[in-house]
Write a structure and sequence with these properties.
There is one protein chain. The chain is mostly beta strands. The chain has no helices and eight strands. It is 0% helix and 67% strand. The strands form two sheets. Strands 1, 3, 4, 5 and 7 form a five-stranded antiparallel sheet that branches. A three-stranded antiparallel sheet has the order 6-2-8, with no helix packed on it. A hairpin with a 2-residue loop joins strand 3 and strand 4. It starts with a strand and ends in a 5-residue tail after the last strand.
């Protein structure tokens, strides 16, 4: 969980993992007080030992301070997971 001050932010993230059995991975960003499926990623596997990955980038307009975090949902646990997250505050005014 990260606390962001008011402002505009460029967010980039990549998630990858391995599933022992067929599964799905849904990663959903949370900011400005709600979940944002439109900036989330989804990946489904159909074989044992499959890897899953996805990435997204978007701009957040935080009118006031906000918490930012990524949530995971899937039908089972993953192994060998990796998350890369970059957040850059932009020099932009309304």
């Amino acid at each position: 969980r990260l606390s962001l001050a008011a402002g505009y932010y460029l967010v980039s993230y990549k998630v990858s993992a391995v599933f022992r059995t067929p599964n799905y991975m849904q990663i959903t960003p949370f900011y400005n007080g709600s979940s944002h499926l439109e900036t989330g990623i989804y990946f489904a596997t159909s074989a044992n030992g499959s890897s899953a990955c996805g990435s997204a980038f978007f701009i957040i307009n935080a009118a006031s301070p906000t918490d930012f975090y990524l949530t995971y949902s899937g039908s089972s646990n993953a192994t060998d997971g990796e998350v890369n997250l970059t957040i850059v505050k932009l020099r932009r005014t309304a």
